[in-house]
Design a protein that fits this description.
mainly alpha; 65 residues; single chain
Length: 65
């Protein structure tokens, strides 16, 4: 993958991360983390995977430059 390809993926993941964080805040605000813990855990898993993937693409991009 080219550096530009990595940058594109990093930006898309950033959009996903921001949106997921906002959704997690809303879920917590309304107490859904307590009433729907399985769904809340899935949101945390999505966030964790996106952050890890973003980190991987960043490292790959930096190693190519």
């Amino acid at each position: 993958m080219t550096s530009q390809g990595h940058k594109t993926v990093i930006l898309e993941l950033d959009t996903l991360i921001r949106g997921t964080r906002l959704l997690i805040e809303k879920v917590e605000l309304h107490g859904l983390d307590q009433t729907q813990p399985e769904d809340y855990d899935q949101l945390l898993a999505i966030l964790g995977k996106a952050v890890n993937q973003q980190r991987e693409h960043t490292m790959q991009m930096l190693n190519k430059e």
